[in-house]
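Our collaborator T.R. sent over the components below with a one-line note: 'Predict the complex.' Nothing else. No constraints on interfaces, no templates requested, no preferences about which chain binds where. So this is a plain run: every listed entity goes in together, and whatever single assembly comes back becomes the starting point for the next discussion.
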Amino acid sequence: MESIAIGSRSIRLVQGDITRVHADAIVNAANSGLLGGGGVDGAIHRAGGGAILEECRAIVAQIGSLPPGEAVITCGGRLSARHVIHTVGPVWHGGRAGEDAMLASAYRESLRVAEAHELATIAFPSISTGAFGYPVREAARVALDAVAVFLGTEARSVREVTFVLYDRHTFGTYADALDEMAASGA
Ligand code: ADP
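Returned assembly:
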C-alpha cells in the first residue's frame, strides 16, 4: 500500500530523494549539533546551501544543542521546499532504551512545528534508520503510527504527510508496515 486516508488527510509513501521534493517543509534527520553531517542531513545542506546552515548556527547559539525527540525550523534555502524542519531521532541501543518513544516524539514534534507555522504538506525521510542504526521494520511501524495518530487528533493545517524513502528496501518495508496498519483498522 502506498497511501492511506485519515479523514480528509493522508499519508503517502514514495521512493526518492527528499532534497528534490516540493512541500511546505521537508524534515531533516539531523544530529544534536545541527551543523550538518552525513546521510540525508548532508544531502539537505548541500542542496539547500548556506542559508540553512546560517539559521542552524543562530539556533545553536540560542539553545545549545537540539535534544533527541525535539524539532526546530529554518528556511529551505535553494530547495524546492519552503522550510526545513530539523529533528533528531534516537540512536538504536537494542530497543530497550526508550527508542520507540523518542522516535515517535521526533515525528510528533516535527508536525507540531509544522502546525505552529500553519504548513500543510510535509515530507519525512526514514528518521534514525541510517547511521543511527534503528531497524527499518520497527522504525516504520513507529513512524507511521505516530503520524497517523497526529493526523487523526492534533492536525489542523497539516493535511498531507509524505514519506520519501531513499532505497527500495526501505520503501518496501514502509509499504508492508502501511498494509499492516490498514489491516489492523488503525
Ligand atoms: P539517521 O542518522 O537519523 O539514521 P541517515 O541520514 O543516516 O539518518 O539515514 C536516514 C535515512 O535517510 C536512511 O534510510 C537513508 O538511506 C536515507 N537518506 C539518505 N539520503 C537521503 C535523501 N537524499 N533523501 C531521502 N532519504 C535519504
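Summary for T.R.: DSSP finds five helices and seven strands in the chain.
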